[in-house]
Design brief:
Layout lengths: L10 E6 L5 H9 L16 E6 L5 E6 L11 H10 L11 E7 L3 H13 L4 E6 L1 H6 L3 E2 L1 H8 L3 E3 L9 H13 L14 H18 E2 L7 H9 L4 H19 L1 H22 L4 H18 L2 H17 L1 H15 L7 H6 L4 H7 L6 H10 L8 H12 L4 E2 L3 E2 H28 L20 H35 L16 H13 L6 H7 L8 H12 L6 H11 L2 H13 L4 H11 L2 H28 L4
Parallel strand pairs: 1-3, 1-4, 4-5, 5-7
Antiparallel strand pairs: 2-3, 6-8, 9-10
The protein binds guanosine-5'-triphosphate and magnesium ion (MG).
The site of magnesium ion has 4 residues, from α1.
InterPro entries: Fe2_transport_prot_B_C, FeoB_GTPase, G_FEOB_dom, Gate_dom, GTP-bd, P-loop_NTPase
Protein name: Ferrous iron transport protein B
Keywords: Membrane, Transmembrane, Transmembrane helix
Amino acid sequence: MADFAPLPVPRLALVGAPNCGKTALFNALTGSRQKVGNYAGVTVERKTGTARTPGGHSFDVTDLPGTYSLRARSPDEQVTRDIVLGHRPGETAPDLLLAVVDATNLRMGLRLARELRQTGRPVLVILNMIDIARHRGIEIDTAELSRELGLPVVTATAVRKVGMAELWSRLDEIAAAGLPAPAENAWREPGVLELRTAQREVDRIIARTVRTPAIPHGTTARIDAVLLHPVAGLAILLVLLFVMFQAVFTWAQPLMDLISAGFDGLGAATHQLLPPGLFQSFIENGLIAGVGSVLVFLPQILILFLFILLLEDLGYMARAAFLMDRIMGGAGLHGRAFIPLLSSFACAIPGIMAARVIDSRRDRLTTILVAPLMTCSARIPVYTLIISAFIPARTVAGLFSLQGLVMFGLYAAGIVSALAVSFVAKLLFWRRDPAPPFMMELPDYKLPRLKGVAIGLLTRARMFLRRAGTTIFSMMVVIWVLATFPGAPAGAEGPAIFYSFAAMIGHLIEPLLAPIGFNWQIAVALVPGMAAREVAVAALGTVYAIQGGGDTAQAIGHALAQHWSLATALSFLVWYIFAPQCASTLAVIRREAGGARWMWLTFGYMLALAYAASFLTYHIALALGAG
Ligand SMILES: Nc1nc2c(ncn2[C@@H]2O[C@H](COP(=O)(O)OP(=O)(O)OP(=O)(O)O)[C@@H](O)[C@H]2O)c(=O)[nH]1
Ligand SMILES: [Mg+2]
């Protein structure tokens, strides 16, 4: 019954279990660069693109979050189910379902493929990661499998061009022949008994069509025996994190010096080229001091992400989640919270969105509540600036850089407080609910693909530069104006900035912040810091530059070391661990938690924590003579 599809461009949807390579296939089909990662739950939203076959046909392709069954439990799984069944308002079901199955893990994938067939939509089964399956000596009789399933089956290796040939030619055939008309949906939510029957049927099909080698592939198991060991595994995880932060400080230095020198030269050149006056001050103090002082931190951010991307690709991150589950569970956090919290090290916003993979609402809310406590990369400029200005560059025990140790401590403080807050949240809100058990599949180890890592780094760099060029730049213009006008009255003493709007605003807020050791310059920097945390660094740069310092990151450091006490610097660092210094994060919390209540709760508790912790730090430091 070769009915022709009425739509000019047929719509395909990629459906499959988490981590089976849907996004990799999506990228291969559409030429996009969506994020792939070797752990479950990377994709939490639908993404669409267009595939053009070698035969010149076009398809609309949708990438979906992974799901083990249409019996959806978490919000990301519901997205998939609703799209597959055409339950989205104003949207019909896709014309062809591409059932993506991990060829090394057929049990999960085939059960879902059979569920998809029940929906009545045409289904094409793709056995992805066939390269790994062959490498392990797994033999799959695809013709027989296709007969058993009653569905066409192709094999694919999404991450290699040559691995896509069969799928491309099959799509061309489908386009030429026209899609079969869909049948009635016969799928309904299966009960436990039906699920069990379905799994038995799948096991029977696998027994008939798949030959696995007698000796199972042991590498992953052998590595896991060490890396998942309750003691050795945790120790290795700690060492890895520690090395990561040491590297952020030591490897980045030469590159940062280079960028710094570049901005130095630029500043000097503009100073010479431009006639003295407002314009010169704007370029030198506003632009170069502001944006330049933030750009210097690009190398550190990239080094941090190099580590994270490599470990992700390797398949280590899911293990880290497994290791942390006991500790996180004790604090009332779900094991699946690990990935969202890990993403929050980049930025709380994707982290909070990644919490969609957590199916229970209380666990999702707890995760969202504490995600902003993870040290996001926007804090790195703030931390590094203060650390380089106040913490001597010494080595401790002949091995560790003291600055790296302090940085490690700041990250650790964020993590520990996140655990503490979720523990308290559990006591306050959810005392009676028992925590559901943690189930997460551990992916096999894979060698990281350099191309993927390089793309990941490029994306990060581009995002960072875009922020520097937009948010940070525009905030800098505002700050420069506030710090320059109305100018000093005739016969005034001291730098003109003392008579500026910025000083007025700063002096207005200062009494509130004086108890935690902040001066009016810090008060000025905190307000625009709500737009993006790094702006605080740039704002301090501009304020002190106009006040008469130099205009590079190093010059800002010197200015701070002159004007601040150590107690103030420490209090400022501690403030940045806790303070709700990011308006966009709060907006996302409101959206994802479904209410302003949770946003204000987050804002309130973080502000209270920040103030209390900075107050304590400042006064303890003063008492110890760091005033
Ligand atoms: N060797 C090999 N690796 C693959 C193949 N397809 C995907 N991968 C890798 O498998 C991992 C998971 O791929 P993704 O595309 O992120 O998987 P996904 O199905 O989108 O996962 P979720 O979005 O979490 O549901 C990544 O590390 C990919 O590089 C393949 O055909 N062969
Ligand atoms: Mg994906």
